[in-house]
């Protein structure tokens, strides 16, 4: 990360949350005691280590997670960080579609499921309904690039 932002990294107090080989960064708020924060996780994948560390430091954070139903995602997200869980996927368009999703208890890893898909616009206007997302975590199996185009309006 420091290669991308150079000297700016040193200007901020940055928290580093490790989780199963992935590192997620969060810039500390100016006033840690009085701020509120909202975190959205797109693609929980049965792993909440980074979110749990964040919840420990900032128990006032509210978590919303969307996942394809990976084993244990709902249980981890709702019990360990008191988050709201939605089964589905975030993509370009709303609808109900077939998707190949990772399941750890299946020999080849993936199974085909019919799941609700939510556009990011639908997610933020109908489900989340707030103006600010303080932290957006995405691990949506390659759809991050298409979603980034929607986020920046390309």
**Helix content, binned percent:** 25-40%
What order do the strands of the largest sheet run in, or round the barrel if closed? Answer: 5-4-3-9
CATH topology: Rossmann fold
Output the radius of gyration: 16 Å
Tally of individual helices: 6
Largest sheet: 4 strands, parallel
Low-confidence stretches: none
- Tally of extended strands? 9
CATH architectural category: 3-Layer(aba) Sandwich
Order of helices and strands: HHEEEHEHEEEEHEH
What is the average of the pLDDT values?
81
Distance between the termini: 24 Å
The share of residues in extended strands comes to: 25-35%
At the first level of CATH, the class is: Alpha Beta
Question: Topology, please?
Answer:
Elements: H1 2-5, H2 8-11, E1 14-19, E2 22-27, E3 38-42, H3 49-57, E4 62-67, H4 73-80, E5 84-87, E6 89-91, E7 95-102, E8 110-119, H5 120-128, E9 135-138, H6 144-152
Parallel strand pairs: 3-4, 3-9, 4-5, 6-8
Antiparallel strand pairs: 1-2, 7-8
Your description of this structure?
There is one protein chain. With 154 residues, the chain is an alpha/beta fold. It has one domain (30-152): Rossmann fold. The protein contains six helices and nine strands; from the N terminus they run ααβββαβαββββαβα. It has helices at residues 2-5, 8-11, 49-57, 73-80, 120-128, 144-152; strands at 14-19, 22-27, 38-42, 62-67, 84-87, 89-91, 95-102, 110-119, 135-138. The strands form three sheets. Strands 5-4-3-9 form a four-stranded parallel beta sheet, covered by helices on one side. Strands 6-8-7 form a three-stranded mixed beta sheet. Strand 3 (38-42), helix 3 (49-57) and strand 4 form a beta-alpha-beta unit. The radius of gyration is 16 Å and the shape is globular. The mean pLDDT is 81. Residues 36-148 form the Methyltransferase FkbM domain. It comes from Panagrolaimus davidi. This is Methyltransferase FkbM domain-containing protein. InterPro entries: FkbM_mtfrase. Pfam families: Methyltransf_21 (PF05050).
């Amino acid at each position: 990360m420091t290669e991308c932002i150079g000297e700016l990294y040193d200007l901020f107090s940055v928290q580093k949350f490790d989780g199963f080989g992935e590192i997620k960064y969060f810039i500390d708020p100016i006033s840690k005691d009085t701020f509120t924060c909202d975190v959205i996780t797109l693609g929980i994948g049965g792993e909440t280590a980074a979110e749990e560390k964040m919840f420990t430091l900032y128990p006032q954070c509210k978590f919303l997670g969307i996942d394809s139903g990976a084993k244990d995602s709902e249980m981890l997200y709702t019990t360990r960080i008191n988050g709201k869980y939605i089964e589905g996927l975030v993509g370009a368009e709303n609808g109900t579609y077939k998707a190949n999703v990772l399941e750890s208890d299946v020999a080849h890893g993936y199974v085909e499921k019919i799941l609700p898909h939510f556009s990011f616009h639908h997610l933020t206007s109908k489900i989340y309904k707030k103006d600010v997302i303080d932290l957006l975590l995405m691990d949506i199996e390659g759809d991050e690039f298409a979603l980034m185009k929607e986020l920046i309006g390309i």
